[in-house]
UniProtKB/TrEMBL annotation:
Keywords: Lyase, Metal-binding
Catalytic reaction annotation: (3S)-3-hydroxy-3-methylglutaryl-CoA = acetoacetate + acetyl-CoA
GO molecular function annotation: hydroxymethylglutaryl-CoA lyase activity; metal ion binding
Keyword Metal-binding: yes
Enzyme Commission no: 4.1.3.4
SUPFAM superfamilies: Aldolase
The protein, known as: hydroxymethylglutaryl-CoA lyase
UniProt source species: Halomonas stenophila
Alphabetical list of InterPro entries matching this protein: Aldolase_TIM, HMG_CoA_lyase_AS, HMGL, PYR_CT
Presence of keyword Lyase: yes
Classification lineage: Bacteria, Pseudomonadati, Pseudomonadota, Gammaproteobacteria, Oceanospirillales
Length: 299
């Protein structure tokens, strides 16, 4: 298959990027980050997470973030909702899109959301039903698609099974998460092929972390297969609190640079995005993990 002519980036920095930060980040900093990302052309921004503050304290200001957004036209601001309680709270904030998050690993599922994979799917069904009533779109995540911090290898058949279940339930898009970044290109391609037998490729997104420095190579492999939606995080921020050692998502700046080089449209202003990466890493005292961001700043 050929490269897609354009790619939609889902910017997960304000959620995946910040959720693991130990010190509380001011709500205003989060709002400014989201605003700057929108100004740089990101049209889909995952802004918050309606999870238990005991499990992920950094996302405790979800209400303030979602109601404080300086909304720009044409931008989707989404939020994670693991259960009905989370969804109801998100609906109160006028959310237009949410995401449920499952896993292809039993142990990770228990560590992350305190239930088995089967129980998580049972829990998501009423979330999907309520969201449909409220006219809110639901995205579905599958974590650990290329490896699990607790179980190691994960069978692609299991990834396909969970992805299909989420799709059949009504998730409009399934984001395939290499949560701990252990994947390599051929593995990523084979996993994608297995999932695409059960879920149309046009409904699949790549959510790759860069822990082992493979994320761009893995993205190249799935772009070649035709994947046209990529999740990324400005400055490569982030990590999952329930996946020890996992580093951030692939950096949005690096993805845009790759796409530009391949002649694939993304609608994003790279310089403005890189400036945003520079700003947020300074603001929260983190190193900039985008190679492109660092290179542009040194120019
Ligand atoms: P639980 O303890 O099994 O839930 O947690 P529960 O229903 O028994 O409730 C326990 C307490 O939590 C109660 O409060 C509930 O009210 C409260 P208490 O009576 O003890 O005061 N509660 C909530 N509070 C706020 N919002 C809610 C909510 N639900 C219950 N929605 C639960 C189950 C799912 C809530 C918990 O395990 C949790 O919040 N987990 C979140 C973990 C998380 O956010 N992980 C990071 C995101 S996933 C990720 O990063 C991977 C991804 O990026 C893809 C990839 O990279 O692969 C998506
Ligand atoms: Mg992630």
């Amino acid at each position: 298959m050929a490269f897609p002519p354009s790619v939609r980036l889902v910017e997960v920095g304000p959620r995946d990027g910040l959720q693991n930060e130990p010190e509380a980040i001011a709500t205003e900093t989060k709002l400014e980050l989201i605003d700057r990302l929108g100004a740089a052309g990101l049209a889909h921004i995952e802004a918050a997470s309606f999870v238990s503050p005991k499990w992920v304290p950094q996302m405790a200001d979800h209400h303030e973030v979602m109601t404080g957004l300086r909304r720009r036209e044409g931008i989707v601001y989404s939020a994670l909702t693991p259960n009905l309680k989370g969804l109801e709270a998100a609906l109160e904030c006028g959310v237009e899109e949410v995401a449920v998050f499952g896993a292809a690993s039993e142990t990770f599922s228990r560590k992350n959301i305190n239930c088995s994979v089967a129980e998580s799917l049972e829990r998501f069904a009423p979330v999907l039903e309520r969201a449909r009533e409220a006219n809110v779109r639901v995205r579905g995540y599958v974590s650990c698609v290329l490896g699990c911090p607790y179980e190691g290898e994960i069978a692609s058949a299991k990834v396909a099974e969970v992805a299909k279940a989420l799709h059949d339930m009504g998730c409009y898009e399934i984001s395939l998460g290499d949560t701990i970044g252990t994947g390599t290109p051929l593995k990523a391609k084979r996993m994608l092929e297995a999932v695409a037998r059960d879920v149309p490729l046009t409904r699949l997104a790549a959510h790759f972390h860069d822990t082992y420095g493979q994320a761009l190579a893995n993205l190249y492999a799935v772009l070649e297969e035709g994947v046209a939606v990529i999740d990324s995080s400005v400055a490569g921020l982030g990590g999952c609190p329930y996946a020890k050692g996992a580093s951030g998502n692939v950096a949005s700046e690096d993805v845009v640079y790759l796409l530009n080089g391949l002649g694939i449209q993304s609608g994003i202003d790279l310089d403005q995005l890189a400036a945003t990466g520079h700003w947020i890493t300074q603001a929260i005292g983190r190193p900039n993990r985008s190679k492109v961001g660092v290179a542009l700043a040194a120019k």
